Amino acid sequence: MKTGSSSSSGCSPPSHLLLFFFFLSFSHAQQSYISNFQLNCYNTNSSSALGYSCNAPQSSCSSFLIFRAQSPYVSPALISFLLSADAANISRLNSVSDVAPLPAGRLIVIPIPCSCSGKFYQHNASYTLKTLSETYFTVANDTYQGLSTCQTLIDQNPFDSRSLSVGNQLVVPLRCACPTLNQTETGIKYLVSYIIASGDDIRAIAQIFNADYQAVLSANELNEKSTIYPFTTLLIPLPSEPTEISIVPPPSSPPPNVPNPPPPPHSDGGSINAALIVGVAAGVFFLLLLGILLYLFFRLKRQRRTRQSLKKESASEIEEYRRPAFKEEEEKKKTLRSPLASTVREMLDWIAVYTFEELLNATGGFDEEHRIQGSVYLGVINGDAPAAIKRVEGDVTREIKILKHISHSNVIKLSGLCLHEENTYMIYEFAEMGSLSDWLQHKNTAGAGDSSSLNWKQRIQIARDVADGLNYLHNYSNPPYIHKNLKSSNVLLGRDFRAKIANLGMARPTEDGGREQVTRHVVGTQGYLAPEYLEHGLITPMLDVFAFGVVLLELLSGREAIFVREDEKNREALLWKAIEGVLLHGEEGKSAAGVRGFVDGCLGDDYPLDLAVAMAELAKRCVSRDAGSRPNMDELLLALSAIHNSTREWNVEEEAGGSSSGSAIPKR
Ligand SMILES: *[C@@H]1O[C@H](CO)[C@@H](O)[C@H](O)[C@H]1NC(C)=O
Ligand SMILES: *[C@@H]1O[C@H](CO)[C@@H](O)[C@H](O)[C@H]1NC(C)=O
Ligand SMILES: *[C@@H]1O[C@H](CO)[C@@H](O)[C@H](O)[C@H]1NC(C)=O
Ligand SMILES: *[C@@H]1O[C@H](CO)[C@@H](O)[C@H](O)[C@H]1NC(C)=O
Ligand SMILES: *[C@@H]1O[C@H](CO)[C@@H](O)[C@H](O)[C@H]1NC(C)=O
Questions:
Q1: pLDDT digits (tens, 9 = 90+) for 39-92
Q2: LysM domain spans which residues (predicted)?
Q3: Which residue among 20, 45, 50, 151 has the greatest number of ligand 2 atoms within 8 angstroms of its CB, and so is best to mutate?
Q4: How far is the centre of ligand 4, averaged over its atoms, from the C-alpha of 92 (Å)?
Q5: Which protein residue's CA is at the shortest distance from atom 1 of ligand 3?
Q6: pTM to 2 decimals?
């Protein structure tokens, strides 16, 4: 797209732009078109580049901006964040869901309040610089599509235009205006700030809005021969609120053939003919139809998914994001309003929003080589640290909301997000060593060498880390949360085998308005579900304590939560029930023997038996049927810290004793 900056004074004599409003009678002056002054950031001769002047009787009014959906700002929620507008109002006015991605180029009507700040009307948005390559010009032209100008950014921000740095938070005054007396007299109520695209002409723009052509010309102090430029705003005077504009600009505009001012050599202001309008209308109809069909398709697909019954691990991808049945009902009622809207706004302050292209580059087009597991890929986005990129269908609001409030070294961090078509891509910190379950089941591929297994010290460290993370979730995060889906495959290991709890998709606040929480829709992974939850749907932090107990047993025994009993005709058995037979009525000798038989064979004799017994006893208390007799997370953390410390002492003795390690991983 060329906007021809070579002859900036070419067509529109600058004389009529210069401080125009100062010399005209207040109530009659309209706004002067910016022409292509937006290209020359250091030319402040044109006041129009600084904004539309406060020339109306009202110092503020409601106004509208038109924004083109463009990656990464593709949904009302994201656009509302960029433009400091209200997502619910955007989705209402445009009849779209506030989180659904829109086709690129679609025109979105953005309602905003417009007010006079000194000399100029404006609506303030704020924008934080994200990369080194951003300048006042790129922010105004590329990010805000011309709704702001570099001149006004320079004027209203304290940062020197030549030494901007990442993290600078800019005030972005968006161009808007209120109708003058003269306009109000003719029935005009609103002025819409439309961004001109290449190929636009004024007559066609007026038609899109059903506005009066002459009124548009006069609102911008233009005449039929004036040239307009892409990425500049044109005011559209309207007698009523603009409604949904369902126009996706045609990919390639046919040559204009309406007799119009011949475009000057440096401009690509073309025109759209009547046939094109018909074409666009047909296109709109088709898109609408397609939209409805797609909507029905996905709705059906989702419903079918919810009906599936509780399954084991293999279905976990779906399972983890399945919402309780009653939630589904609520959502049907308010398809247009999802809570992601407000979340996204808060969120974009702390995580990055990536374009789909960036993810494609990072993962080699989601190549098999990059696949970690299921829908999770490893990628290096824009040269940053490696990240785990997870494709998620459906509602991720809850997890995002939760992760915003979470900051703990034993809980996986969310660092970015990308919306693309029906999917959301969540970008997490990458845990190099993979999941705990892979290690316990010897499926680890990220590991150090082959046939390696976790040694005792590492297992205790992992148990302590998980307890630390859970204790944080239960007692220190604000608000406190219940994870609800703890299991060894949701415990990820970093490079140094430090554990991090992942997958908070099912978590919920511990206090739900002080009420006891009961659900009719039990979800989760078998083998980890506490009896009171399975039987009565009761949700308390004790749910996590129970699941944590199962993870402790896995660490201790190397077996899975549901395992095959060789001693009982290969029947499947629950690990948490098996421990009952191991620790017999507190008889010390028998317990020790039982535990020795229970401990993971991979450890050989390379573990302190007394500590293993202590851990087994702790785990047994966690999985007791009666939720009231399970320990709290803070108690567990203390107990595990004690075992961890004793392990360190044992390790020293062990080393002094010169006993050789059976584990492939050297002790520290
Ligand atoms: C005021 O409005 C009338 C149309 O009602 C128009 O002809 C006239 O040019 C306007 N005056 C100014 C100064 O724009
Ligand atoms: C701005 O105006 C001054 C005089 O009014 C003129 O000398 C100067 O060239 C103008 N600058 C630009 C960039 O047009
Ligand atoms: C949304 O629109 C309504 C009606 O136009 C308005 O009253 C309300 O203030 C708007 N909300 C926000 C947050 O702008
Ligand atoms: C917008 O920002 C400018 C510059 O920071 C400030 O002077 C003005 O008061 C703000 N306007 C509103 C409506 O907040
Ligand atoms: C303004 O932004 C658009 C879209 O990003 C870009 O195509 C165009 O080249 C930019 N204009 C200039 C003068 O850089």
A1: 888 877 777 889 999 988 889 999 999 999 988 888 887 888 899 998 888 888
A2: 192-236
A3: 45
A4: 27
A5: 89
A6: 0.51
